[in-house]
Specification:
Elements: E1 3-6, H1 11-15, H2 18-32, E2 36-39, E3 53-57, E4 60-64, H3 72-77, E5 90-93, H4 98-101, H5 119-124, H6 129-134, H7 139-149, H8 161-170, E6 177-179, H9 191-198, H10 200-214, E7 218-220
Parallel strand pairs: 1-2, 6-7
Antiparallel strand pairs: 1-3, 3-4, 4-5
Helix pairs in contact: 7-8, 7-10, 9-10
Length: about 220
């Protein structure tokens, strides 16, 4: 069975040589006859560890970082494809990295786990369940549920989403639009970019649910 090796394809990792690392890992695996499946995932959000490489093992995914292309040969010699932990860049089980272990992720719960462009992976991790539920409700029922949830915008104002959606729902217009403000206006957070790069179907699903709620038939990012 192929060993899954994850190399991120996200802006920070790419700027630090992730493509070259992915190529080097593929070549190193071929040289020793290792059967690997190279998956270009998103970032886990631990940007100081990028490029962070992960390998799936029987005990869970193990991580290495920050990895440079010059580290690949020594990582392979130290048992990278078996999840070996003798290398100086070994970080242990990914889920046990303190900054990850201390978090309960909601909007970021899928980032870094899979190929962001894989619809199958998105569905397997619960994607589109919200949309499926929304399709059985009226626009007002969706808005009422959003209000009851207390959901707020992710910007500094934390404006209640239900109020915003209600305003658009009640507006009289022959054509309504959903516009995603894909802006990194909150200095240094990169929150929008991580969702768009690492879990893009979440954005599309959310915009679709919002469109159903307010009566919009077109959306723009």
């Amino acid at each position: 069975m192929s060993v899954k090796v994850f190399v991120p394809r996200e802006s920070t990792a790419l700027s630090l040589g992730a493509d070259e690392i992915a190529e080097a890992i593929s070549l190193a695996a071929a040289d020793i006859g290792a059967d690997i499946e190279l998956i270009r995932n998103g970032s886990r959000g631990l940007l100081w560890l990028e490029p962070m490489i992960e390998v799936e093992t029987d005990r869970g995914r193990v991580a290495y970082g920050p990895v440079g292309v010059e580290d690949v040969d020594t990582l392979v010699e130290a048992g990278l494809f078996e999840g070996g932990q003798s290398h100086a860049l070994a970080l242990g089980l990914t889920d046990e990295i303190p900054q990850l272990k201390a978090q309960t992720r909601v909007s970021f719960k899928r980032i870094g786990l899979d190929d962001p462009l894989s619809l199958d992976a998105y569905r397997q991790r619960g994607g589109f369940r919200g949309l499926q539920d929304a399709l059985s409700k009226s626009g007002q029922e969706i808005i009422d549920e959003v209000k009851a949830s207390g959901l707020r915008g992710r910007g500094g104002a934390a404006f209640p989403s239900g109020i915003k959606w209600q305003t658009v729902h009640d507006a009289q217009a022959t054509q309504k639009y959903i516009v995603c403000n894909a802006d990194e206006g909150d200095s240094g957070t990169f929150a929008d970019r991580l969702i768009m790069e690492c879990d893009p179907y979440l954005l599309i699903e959310g915009m679709t649910i919002a469109g159903l709620a307010v009566g919009a038939s077109e959306g723009y990012i």
